[in-house]
């Protein structure tokens, strides 16, 4: 009965409420003729309340806190999105790969020099597949970054290994030190190498031979020669095996010291002889590179070093026992056991002094390369200034080949190319070296001929440099981009530059800023405004980015022109003033327009260099550009450069310097006449 009464009362209340709402909606009119506007029965879904949160909380007429309406945030929380994505996008079982398959993906990217894609396998793909990487994956990536000098990323991966509680192996340390050695920033590489070495000491890790070799390489290339030599002493103290590779890394360290490197290399070389370690082909190539790039240092210390080398070689006699020499004055001393010890000491001193005197007074070419060195007829070390002089201290190229035969090291074309850089810059020396190539039956590559073109161009023998093209053709080789770059060094006029660019176009070789920079150098040296302007227009048309040498050539050329302009202002009647002023003013207008197009207008040289200078690690932060195709044949990845014999090149047809100096007509085909 009570439920019936309640339902009746509820129906009456609802009907009265509806009647009141209808009356209120129809009575909302004004005397000005406004239309009847019905009132919404419910608030809009996102309409805000008219009272504030504070009023709602403290008002006695409001109950609870549900009445204030709070808007949802416009930007969702990033963590919530990640969590939602993680819960919804569960990878399928077939999507996950094995440890070996992920490693194969990394190896494939690294072999094709796709560093970013290799890193994404661990940082993106495995994270999406919800697979935890192992230390093998990290070691592959660290080794790949180390080979290209990406030391920052290599150490970041090393830190991730420790965060994942993965085991750090000896190979990991070797790769990290290699990253320090190849880093483009020597200071950063040295700092990281010191930190890594401290970590190894704190953990009590004992380095092996590979670790020591990598440390010697890192410290040597970063310029810390003292530490590199100390590491070798540690290897000796720990009785670790010291082989040819260790001394090769020491020779690399010597190359990094341009002022004293050759002196250090001599000490390293004869230390190898005393330890009876035979140098290999790579050792000789490094020594020749040291001959090319390094100096002797101060003469007094160098003289002491050479005397030390001569004395030690005589004392050891090239690893042989010193023969006994009978002396009457010595026989009279033999009286007791103490006298016998004194006799042996004096006898060794007599032998050493006599052989040292013979070595110093030896007639002929010096020889500091063999186990029994001598200075020959060398008068003063102060005369040793150029690479060919330092090669002469080693006995010349013939002695280098003889020493290689004695050590069982066969020369290759790399050895010949290194020798080409240090022999005298004459036709006679080049002819002799080409004859040696034919005698040894070596196969030449394009790099050898590129160095030959550069060597002739640097001594301003541009016609002789062009003749090398016929040698390349006779050797059945094809020019590469470097060939055109060294040929550009000889483009003295606009016509020669246009001819070279036309040759490149016919060979489907695209010009680069290095080739145009070599042409710009010649135009600035000849003070040819039209030549320089044409190069600037080509850079603008081809949309090339100028590099640091290009801008430095323009800056130096601008200073020379300003100096010449002031000289003409001081002497208004000087001959050629009007022509220079006219060309110079036109050049400045076009240079300003070019700078504005390149975004370099009004910038100092340092500011402009900061814009055009590219960070060496930027290339590893972006995926490889489209158009690069992966190498399908694995054997082609390690393919050497194309090499051919030069037996068809008639070396005897090369004219000597005396013949060229007499003003004979130079026939281009005479240089490379084919031998039948």
Please characterize this protein's 3D structure:
Residues 660-676 have a biased composition (Basic and acidic residues). InterPro entries: PPR_rpt, PROP1-like_PPR_dom, TPR-like_helical_dom_sf. The chain is mostly helical and 676 residues long. Among the domains are: 99-242, Tetratricopeptide repeat domain (Serine Threonine Protein Phosphatase 5, Tetratricopeptide repeat); 511-612. Helix content is 61%, strand content 1%. Strands 1-2 form a two-stranded antiparallel ribbon. α6 packs parallel to α8 (170-182). It is globular. The model is unreliable at 26-51, 317-362, 631-638 and 661-676 (pLDDT under 50).
| Count of alpha/pi helices | 32
Helix content: 55-70%
Give the oligomeric state of the chains in this entry, treating copies of one chain as homo and distinct chains as hetero: single chain
Rounded mean pLDDT score: 80
Distance between the termini: 132 Å
Helix-and-strand structural type? mainly alpha
Shape designation: globular
Broad CATH class of the domain at 99-242: Mainly Alpha
Strand content is: under 5%
Biggest beta-sheet profile = 2 strands, antiparallel
The CATH topology of the domain at 99-242: Serine Threonine Protein Phosphatase 5, Tetratricopeptide repeat
**Radius of gyration, whole Å:** 40 Å
Overall number of strands: 2
Strand neighbour order, sheet with most strands: 1-2
For the record, the CATH architecture of the domain at 99-242 stands as Alpha Horseshoe
Low-confidence regions: 26-51, 317-362, 631-638, 661-676
CATH superfamily grouping of the domain at 99-242: Tetratricopeptide repeat domain
């Amino acid at each position: 009965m009570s439920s019936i009464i309640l339902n009746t009362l509820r129906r009456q209340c609802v009907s009265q409420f509806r009647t009141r709402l209808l009356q209120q909606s129809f009575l909302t009119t004004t005397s000005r003729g406004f239309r009847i506007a019905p009132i919404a029965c419910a608030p809009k879904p996102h309409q805000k309340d008219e009272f504030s949160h504070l009023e709602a909380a403290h008002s006695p007429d409001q109950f609870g806190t549900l009445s204030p309406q709070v808007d949802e945030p416009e930007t969702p929380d990033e963590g919530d999105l990640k969590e939602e994505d993680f819960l919804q996008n569960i990878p399928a079982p077939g999507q996950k790969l094995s440890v070996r398959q992920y490693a194969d993906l990394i190896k494939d990217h690294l072999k094709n020099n796709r560093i970013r894609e290799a890193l994404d396998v661990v940082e993106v793909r495995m994270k999406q597949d919800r697979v935890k990487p192992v230390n093998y994956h990290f070691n592959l990536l660290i080794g790949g970054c180390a080979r290209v000098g990406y030391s920052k990323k290599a150490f970041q991966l090393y830190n991730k290994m420790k965060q994942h509680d993965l085991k750090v192996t000896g190979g990991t340390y070797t790769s990290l030190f290699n990253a320090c050695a190849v880093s483009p920033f020597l200071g950063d590489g040295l700092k990281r190498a010191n930190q890594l070495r401290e970590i190894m000491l704190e953990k009590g890790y004992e380095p092996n031979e590979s670790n020591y070799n990598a440390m010697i390489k890192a410290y040597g290339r970063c310029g810390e020669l003292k530490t590199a030599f100390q590491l070798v002493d540690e290897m000796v103290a720990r009785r670790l095996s010291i082989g040819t590779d260790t001394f090769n890394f020491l020779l690399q360290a010597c190359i990094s010291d341009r002022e004293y490197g050759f002196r250090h290399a001599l000490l390293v070389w004869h230390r190898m002889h005393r330890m009876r370690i035979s140098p290999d082909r790579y050792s000789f190539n490094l020594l020749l590179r040291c001959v090319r790039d390094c100096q002797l240092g101060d003469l007094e210390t160098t003289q002491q070093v050479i005397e030390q080398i001569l004395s030690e070689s005589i004392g050891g006699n090239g690893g042989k026992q010193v023969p006994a020499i009978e002396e009457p004055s010595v026989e009279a001393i033999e009286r007791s056991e103490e006298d016998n010890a004194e006799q042996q000491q004096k006898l060794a001193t007599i032998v050493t002094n006599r052989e040292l005197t013979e070595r110093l007074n030896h007639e002929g070419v010096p020889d500091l390369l063999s186990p029994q060195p001598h200075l020959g007829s060398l008068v003063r070390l102060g005369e040793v200034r150029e690479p060919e002089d330092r090669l002469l201290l080693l006995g010349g190229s013939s002695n280098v080949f003889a020493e290689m035969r004695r050590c069982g090291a066969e020369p290759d074309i790399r050895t010949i190319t290194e020798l080409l850089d240090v022999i005298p810059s004459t036709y006679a020396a080049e002819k002799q070296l080409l004859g040696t190539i034919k005698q040894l039956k070596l196969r030449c590559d394009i790099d050898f001929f590129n160095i030959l073109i550069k060597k002739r161009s640097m001594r301003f023998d541009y016609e002789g440099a062009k003749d090398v093209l016929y040698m390349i053709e006779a050797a059945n080789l094809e020019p590469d981009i470097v060939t055109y770059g060294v040929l550009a060094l000889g483009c003295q006029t606009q016509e020669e530059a246009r001819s070279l660019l036309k040759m490149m176009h016919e060979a489907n070789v695209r010009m680069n800023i290095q080739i145009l920079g070599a042409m710009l150098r010649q135009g600035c040296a000849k003070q040819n405004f039209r030549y320089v302007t044409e190069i600037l227009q080509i850079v603008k048309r081809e949309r090339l980015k100028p590099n640091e040498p290009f801008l430095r050539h323009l800056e130096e050329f601008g200073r020379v022109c300003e100096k010449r302009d002031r000289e003409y202002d001081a002497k208004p009647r000087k001959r050629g003033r009007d022509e220079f002023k006219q060309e110079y003013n036109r050049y400045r207008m076009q240079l300003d327009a070019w700078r504005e197009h390149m975004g370099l207008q009004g910038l100092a040289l340092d500011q402009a260099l900061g814009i055009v200078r590219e960070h060496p690690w930027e290339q590893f932060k972006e995926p490889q550009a489209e158009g690069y195709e992966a190498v399908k044949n694995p054997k082609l990845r390690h393919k050497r450069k194309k090499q051919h014999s030069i037996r068809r090149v008639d070396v005897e047809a090369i004219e000597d310097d005396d013949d060229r100096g007499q003003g004979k007509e130079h026939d281009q085909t005479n240089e490379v006449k084919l031998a039948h």
